[in-house]
């Protein structure tokens, strides 16, 4: 009886400790890579320092069933964040955020990005979400 109660308690604690995002990776140094494997896409992401204190973040998405990979390159200033879905894939929503020298990438299923939704910049201003470049490799 105690064993069953303990097992049920441990199992419940594991489920309650699960993060809200289905998958997450934090990158703390240039060229250090992280990966996400949510939905029908696998993604590998890394960053390198760029001009004007930006970090140039590169994410490569590859369909698990084969097909051409797509690469997204964006510059993130400290405090920036952006979220989007990949064209042709109905989820997940990928979110990228920067805090200091750390870039956190997460994915959540069941949500869609609004291409017209603004993002908040480090200086507090808003601008339309946009990517530096996106497309086939």
Structure description:
- There is one protein chain.
- With 137 residues, this protein is mainly β.
- The protein contains one helix and eleven strands, in the order αβββββββββββ.
- The chain has one helix at 2-16, and strands at 23-27, 34-36, 41-49, 55-63, 70-76, 81-84, 93-99, 102-108, 118-120, 126-128, 133-136.
- A hairpin with a 4-residue loop joins β2 (34-36) and β3.
Question: Which features would summarize this protein structure in a list?
Answer:
137 residues, 5-stranded antiparallel sheet, 11 strands, 45% strand, globular
Quick overview:
With 137 residues, the protein is mainly β. The chain is 11% helix and 45% strand.
Topology of helices and strands:
Blueprint: H1 2-16, E1 23-27, E2 34-36, E3 41-49, E4 55-63, E5 70-76, E6 81-84, E7 93-99, E8 102-108, E9 118-120, E10 126-128, E11 133-136
Antiparallel strand pairs: 1-8, 2-3, 3-4, 4-5, 5-11, 6-7, 7-8, 9-10
